[in-house]
Amino acid sequence: MSQGFQSQLGIDTVSPVTRGYEFENCQITKAGTIIGVIGDPEQAIFGFLDASPTYFHSFSLADHRTYTMAANRRSTRAIVDLLNRVRTDGLQQNHFRTDVGVSPIVYTGSLTESLAHAKQCVPPGTPMLVLARKHATVAQARLGATGYSTDPWAVLREAQEERERFLMHVAVAVDLAQRSIFDVAVHRLVQGLSSRHGFRKPIAFDGSVDMTMRRSVALMILEHLLAKHQELLAQTALDFYNTLFAYLPICLEGMSLPAVRNGKFRDAASAVRYHDLFHSLNSPDETRLIRTVHQAKGSEASAVFVVLDDSQVDHILNPVVNDEEQRITYVALSRAQDHLFVFCTTAGRLPDFATFAMTTHEIGVASVTGPARRRTRPRATG
């Protein structure tokens, strides 16, 4: 250590490592290192990793100093007001930003239509972070973001997963190429259809392969489908498959696809339009912005859309003290900078949300925003 320099250790966590006694006799403490523990106990949501607000509150070292940052720099006043009602630790955050912003909006009804409506409420091009507690709800939200209530890819997958996976690799590559991300499109198609060991099923090819051959096939498929894209949009998934069935032997001598005969896949592919397959794809960016709350920890976005199940609604309406699920909902809501949207499944709870100065929408019907209701203290668990 150079003369006149004092080392510092910063810890941003509420994990067991913040228990003060673990530092009392360690070498970094004896060497005079300045230790800083920074965090928000209300955002302790990794209980499965033994994280707990208790460790943060009980942290203590000799002559340590405590500082409180009571100003919220991220969110508008309207969002901070809601967060202050949802917090259960008694801390009331001040508004650092002077703009009031728009009131948070609550939806019920169709998740697909709610997402579409929310996107119309923000300036064009504004990224929207969509959050849910469970992976199953995230999958539902990703489907809702496409505008489809039923996943057309799932119809094909149920009939025959191998062919569905093949068609999806091709469609994703075409989508990327359509958006002028051609290098990525070729790379994705090469990796999706082949490996260094050979072409993946359902493609049949007995010869040896190298990267030049794999890229050549991918390029030829992309060029052919881009030229036929508008024509395919008016056809079925079966036509899409048969187009590839006819073209692959031209790409490489000895290469083929199995013909589609009578059966589940033929029935399913005849019933699904290529247009629906193509437009139900989530782009990588859209998929990245739809995630679980735990995956979004540390993130923020101008617009945030939070999907709540029935049990989570009371985390806003009737907050519970010392409850990790309550804190998970708080973390989700606190990611929002300018626009906050909440989706709940029970229409009967909308009047309760309105009393919190939140605009409420049952798809197609908007209710009037009511006055804010102040809560003096959170409801304690029994």
Describe the structure concisely for a colleague.
Helices cover 44% and strands 13% of the residues. With 382 residues, it is of the alpha/beta class.
Question: Notable features of this structure?
Answer:
single chain; 382 residues; alpha/beta; seven-stranded mixed β-sheet; two-stranded parallel ribbon; 18 helices; elongated; disordered C terminus
Q: Give the radius of gyration.
A: 27 Å
Number of strands: 13
Helix content: 40-55%
How would a textbook summarize the main sheet? 7 strands, mixed
Note the overall shape: elongated
Spans of 5+ residues with little confidence (pLDDT < 50)?
364-382
Instruction: Determine the number of helices (DSSP H or I, runs of at least 4 residues).
Output: 18
Give the structural class: alpha/beta
- Straight-line distance between termini: 54 Å
In what order do the strands lie side by side in the largest sheet?
A: 9-6-10-11-5-12-13
Strand residues, percent: 5-15%
Mean pLDDT: 81
Describe the protein's architecture and organization.
44% of the residues lie in helices and 13% in strands. It is built from 18 helices and 13 strands. The chain is elongated and about 80 Å long. The protein is of the alpha/beta class and 382 residues long. The protein starts with 7 loop residues before the first strand and ends in a 16-residue tail after the last strand.
